[in-house]
Amino acid sequence: MAKARLIGDRTNKMMVQAMERRATDVRGRVFHVTLLVTLLISLFILAVLIVDVVIDSWGFLTGRPGGFLSGTMRSLSDDPKLGVHQALVGTFWIAVFVAVLAFPIGIGAAIWLEEYALKNWFTRFIELNIRNLAGVPSIVYGLLGLFLFVKSLEGLTGGKSIASAGITLAILVLPIVIITAQEAIRAVPQGLKEGAYGVGATKWTMIRSQVLPYAAPGIFTGTLLSMSRGIGEAAPLLLVGAVSGRLGSDSGFFDLSSVTAEHFMAMPVIIVEWVQNSGRDPGFAEAAAAAIVVLLVFVILMNAAAIILRNHFEKKRG
Amino acid sequence: MRLRKLLVLIIGLMTAFALVAAACGNDGDDGGTTPSTAGQIESGGESGDGSQSAAGDEAPAGSVSGSVTISGSSTVEPISVRVAELFEDVQPDVHVTVDGPGTGDGFKLFCEGETDISGASRPIKDSEAETCAENGIEHVELRVGIDGIAVMTGESSPVECVTFNDIYGLVGPESTGFGSWADAGTLSGLATSSLPDADLDIYGPGEESGTFDSFVEIVLEDIADERGQDATTRPDYNANADDNVIIQGIQSGDTTFGWVGFAFAAHASGVKLLQVDGGGGCAGANADTIASGEYPVSRALYIYVNKAEAAENPALTAYVEYYLSDEGLGTAVSDVGYVTLADDAKGAARANWAGR
After folding, report:
1. In chain B, fewer beta carbons within 10 Å around the N or the C end?
2. Does residue B2 belong to the interface with chain A, where contact is any CB pair within 8 Å?
């Protein structure tokens, strides 16, 4: 009773305040402006980064755009054969591995956790661990990849190969995929599910016809953003066989043998290497900026695909 | 369904992106001339290499194919890469892969038989050699170049030349807390030059770096032993793994102090390379003084080759022979900014390889 009266008193007070207040809501305005400033700060930082990188790389990219995409790792920055082809092939295949492994496993795990698992201590324990895994530093996943996929499963992965790197990064993004998919599934209105049961649907039919279509936009956004994060990782790749100096082979994009070949290259690693090389040969700073632009374009294309998929499913749902 | 069209467009774009790069990837051989073979420091002379002229300028009689795996020092890495690039024009079917995790990590892989060649910025340690021997891996040591360590200060510093004792007084283990150059003279029993009473900010590579080890070994170790101290530096300086950051640090003041590999220092502006007196008088750091040993703070760079692999793998043998030719020890070493060996040292490396 006392509590109810307290709430009643407070409501009264707020009403009185609201009526006595001046016409313009100063605090609301300040809040509004503060939010706008935070948005502008993050946009400004992003713009500075992009403009800086594009300016640095301009000479390199306009000078020989095709050559840069088809070239390989070289020791001198003015070498006409310098380029990111090997690294693009590596990153392309790593993205394929992440998509093929992390997405089905992650979405499946999320469906189980949300729709099938009993809400008991064991499920909560699993969920807690998944959330913790999402915060583990990427280098730890690199060590896992080194011992599990490079050493123990060498026969399957080919050792220090793109396959090992792809599986390692798939595991790295798996917790994020599970968490975002869970959130999307949780947001499905209870009424939809009950309606499906009401017309006699089985659990599986209900999930397939109601839950998944409704949750699809959220699942797509989350999974593809996590993929963008995955292919930007450099640290774990250095442990599982990305080279820093020179890669002997330069295979095509659709050459499957390159997937299990010993050693590989990837875009984030080549950026790190070239930045380090710039102390010895300053021209590598421009090459690194150009490689960043190539990686940005790759990621933007991927995100664009994600946004279009999401819009498509949202329309279907609407 | 406009959206579906857009989606098709995006996927098409990604595929096109991939295809363009894939299509261009196969015509990599049209690059024509290799760049910058001009910047050769080498003073010419065929005197020392009589035994090895076959590995020299002429293309070998037959073409070989195969692969060579190299790991080891990140300092030696660019030389091995450059040699591989030049070698590619002679033997396009030999695939050379080069990694540079560090000298110690390289020897670990080498002694497990994982790599054919290991680059090193110091000679192999006894413990590492034992591991190799236990695993039945025999190696041959070849000196391939020299890396000087530049000792530097700010551009307008009044200091011109420092002795090993001065450096010990500035950054040695007993100098912890010193904030002025003149403090170096306060260590008892250490004869130093007269250094100015000016702010001392120190920048250098961290303990994990090969350059740190070499610097301690060449400059500080003997003095520290004599004085009963650990062979290391003072802990309170700005340590960084990135040579660019070190050089920026040294640029940031007039009387800063720091050291970094000569290959990095040679390109730096806004810093002054100090002359160093290692007992034989003040000597400035440049390609000539480093090659002759006149400049005292320098170290040799090595490659270690797995003997059994060399006997079995003609690609490896051909690569090492090319490495030891004038293209390797001369052109490649100077292309990437290191100092080439003197002629007799080149001859010694070739003799080592021939007598393996």
Report:
1. N
2. no
